[in-house]
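B., you asked whether I could sanity-check this one before it goes into the benchmark set. Here's the sequence:
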Amino acid sequence: MKTQIGIIGAGPAGLLLSHLLSLQGIDSVVLESRSQDYVIGRVRAGVLEQGTVDTLKAAGLGGRLENEGLEHEGIELLFNGIARRIDFPSLTKGKKVTVYGQKEVIIDLIAARQAAKAKLYFEAKASKIEGLESDKPVIHFEKDGQQHRLECDFVAGCDGFHGIARKSIPNDVLTVYEREYPFAWLGILAEAAPSSHELIYANTESGFALHSMRSPSISRNYLQCDPKDDIANWSDEQIWQELSQRLARKEGSFHLNTGKIIEKSITAMRSFVVEPMRYKNLFLAGDSAHIVPPTGAKGMNLAVADIRILSKAFIDFYKQTDTNGLDSYSETCLRRVWLAMRFSWWMTSLLHKFPDDDAFAYKLQLAQLDYATTSLAAKTSLAENYVGLDLDFKG
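And here's what the prediction gave me:
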């Protein structure tokens, strides 16, 4: 089998890359080790930056997004029992975010690729990449019990943290930057109407909480917990009670809508970046190159930003034999990655209770939150990072 771009992984990064390339007549093959149902069923990110929404719409993927996505013009920060709102449009020249789950983005991308009769193979496990130094690298994969070879010009490693793409780069080439946080998120998906029309981020003496949503009838909520905790230790009643306590405020009424919990899990928090994001004819994108704690809502948005940069680089190469975009890919992406990493780290540090924190540290958090929600400069910085920095952000 031969193609121009061999793509490993059918998450948002891999599928979007294949789609954007196909619009320019560039051939690709997507290999995904999991089944289609598994890929669709993963519950992941749900907040899309303005740039991500614009990218999907420009690529002809805005149908359901426009009809079902929930536009949000701000968020609430709740601390010391007081809620303060950050208004995005007034601080970012009209930009907003949209709540539209990664699952829905995946559904739209798969539908578009299948409608175009794309070479998209599920349950096709890539096992090895050979010849990255040559002009025709080969991806070895297994499908239906048979071994296959995919010869291509370039390989796009969009196969996540545990995939083979990053592991195909020599250890002495990669530099790994990593931080594990001493807490996790207990997340639930519930058949309960959202209790607020915008996201609520709460800093409390008991720990962090987040109230979010996926649709007008489905809410998504999170609680800070111990990373060693077992989800079996948490009854539905305990979860709702803890959420109610952490989202309570001193003044005004806030009622947390409850309902049947249809999914619950505990996810550890980490920051992870590798440099460079290119080795020879292999390009990493999305979670294969970087992972951010979800506090700043940057994970999928960073993957989409990678693909916007990578797809343009491939298009310039094939249409104009211009290699500048390919040569600068890693440097261009990493600047944005580290800016998003900084914001996610800042949000995480600002809102969570750390095991070694004392009363002094907590008071400092409250002072930071007070400043971040009252200073025009601080509010502007928070807002422009949350809605997403421009692709050509110069600072």
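One thing to flag: The mean pLDDT is 96. Otherwise nothing jumped out at me.
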